[in-house]
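REVIEWER CHECKLIST
Item 1: Sequence provided? yes
Item 2: Single chain? yes
Item 3: Sequence as submitted:
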Amino acid sequence: MAKKFRFFYRLTFALIKKEWKKISLVLLSFSVILIFLVFFSQFVLSAIANTTGKVIKPLYVEALVGKPTTFNPLFSKTEAEKEINSLVFRGLIKISPEGLPVGDLAEKYEIKNDTEYTFYLKKDVRWQDGAKFTADDVVYTIQTGQNSLYNSEIEDTFRDVSVNKKDDYTVVFQLQEAFSPFLSALTVGIIPRHIKLTDYRPIGTGDFRFVEIKDGHSILEGNKARIKFQYYPTTQTAETAVKLSQVHGLPNYGSLGNTFKGWSNFQVKISTLAYQEVMAFFNLKDEVLKEKLVRQALSFATPKEEILNNSFGKKGTIAFNSLPNLPTFQNKAVEKYPYNLEKSSTMLNNAGWILKDDFRYKDNKKLTLTITTIDNPEFEDSAVKMRNSFRKVGVDAEVIIVSGSELTTKIVPNRDFSILLTSQLLDPDPDQYVLWHTTQTKESNVSGIATAKIDKLLEDGRKTADQKVRSEKYQEFTRILLDEEPAIFLYYPRYVWLVSKRIQNIDLKNFRSSADRFQSIDRWVINKPLL
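Item 4: Structure as written out by the authors:
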């Protein structure tokens, strides 16, 4: 053993003596590399991180109940479809946080008269496949939407509108008659002319673009982040995905029940929806409710404050009228029907409904009403509180719960209700022709109100571009509508967003509608990945 050791020792020494220059050079090089790594590693790692950050953007995963069927803004019907498409496609106009129409793809616009609008397009916009955005795209979008063969969502709005290209970046719209809400209609997403419907791909000009569309999900990519919408068939399956940390968030989670109570790894973001209102529509064809005095009495018997409160916080913001929840319309608004059971009882007496054995009768007929609403914990709670309060003034009221499909296919079309408690989408523009005009009583005018004064004000309000005149018309319209009281205007609902605490820097300062939850996504920090 000792002989072998001496042999290798002498061999190694001889090699070092012979090749000492080469060995010294290798050792020196290794030392330099080691010193570089020790003193400059933080700079190297930082550079690698920055490079990687540009290639692999943080991914936010959200549970979406239901499956979108179209990614074309002309045919979007569901809230989910409209929301996703709004991130990818832009319109000529967008609505500001104050509820005012401002330019989006349009650099500016001019209203020559009440029926002619000229739009000057931005010249530096490109489609997400690199093609230039021009006036041809605008004309193509509107004319495609007008084509009755396609049954688009904008066909009725643009039916009597002609659109013409003046030059590559100027478009002129000519209306057959004045229509003041026209600017709001131009928020519809513009689609590219160079991609035909027969070979359609969702290519837009928005802040996000589609990078993957699968049967169970879709992925959008922006400048600094990606969004994955994972589809689930029911709210229950979406809730399970949240609990299993398969997604970061669950939007529009209205009930906020016990399901997630006490879960410390979630944060709840709550904002009020400005363009949505919960109303209790009266059926004016009902023998009892066609009398205005009864409708007013029931409004005084509606405990809005109590309805608004539940064990998980307020449901939203109390409504004073039918207009959107914007300072422009609500700064001077007051409650016309404050909760007052004594006044309600007096009005019912005056209407001939006499209290007898806890209930009211007229001509030996009992005052009986139903409050119909959908199978939703928040709406059901509101309906029950209305029923309980109505009973205090002698009205025999019952609550009827129906499915969403039954509501849309049977209850509303047949006007099969006494009082219908539901949520109503509102336009940022104060025009509410479709909700209250006599010509709409078989369509969106759910209550069936038909008065010449309201009709005239709604007609005049949409025929002038003079904002001062319009303001006066809609103030008068609101006054008369509240006097007629075809519905009880309850509250603007909250938007409840259940989101992981892994997501930081969420800002809902200018939140007005659901898609606004992504307004600050470029500043979000996603601390940890999912499973």
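Item 5: Key structural point noted by reviewer: The mean pLDDT is 89.
Item 6: Recommendation: ____
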